[in-house]
Design the sequence.
């Protein structure tokens, strides 16, 4: 009998505190972080100074994403991480 492997995708959402100065800073973060491996969704709030990123936990982590933001020259500190469920995704 053949064994079936089922890949379980665990999505997480991380809220990251940052210090962006202008819309060009936000654009730079959007353009670079949205292409990071495992990133599924990205919201950069200049007003709130927060980045919310939904990602595949098997492909990246909140620490890796913070490091990528820091490489761009911005402060980045994780303030919240939660697992994304189908129900929480529908509420958006």
Sequence:
């Amino acid at each position: 009998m053949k064994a079936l492997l089922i890949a379980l995708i665990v999505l997480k959402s991380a809220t990251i505190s940052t210090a962006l100065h202008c819309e060009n800073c936000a654009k730079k973060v959007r353009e670079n972080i949205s292409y990071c491996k495992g990133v599924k969704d990205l919201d950069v709030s200049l007003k709130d100074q927060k980045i919310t990123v939904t990602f595949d936990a098997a492909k990246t982590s909140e620490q890796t994403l913070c490091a990528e933001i820091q490489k761009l020259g911005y402060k980045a500190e994780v303030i919240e991480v939660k697992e994304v469920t189908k129900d929480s995704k529908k509420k958006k």
About this structure: The chain has one domain: 11-90. Residues 23-33 form the longest helix (11 residues). DSSP finds three helices and four strands in the chain.
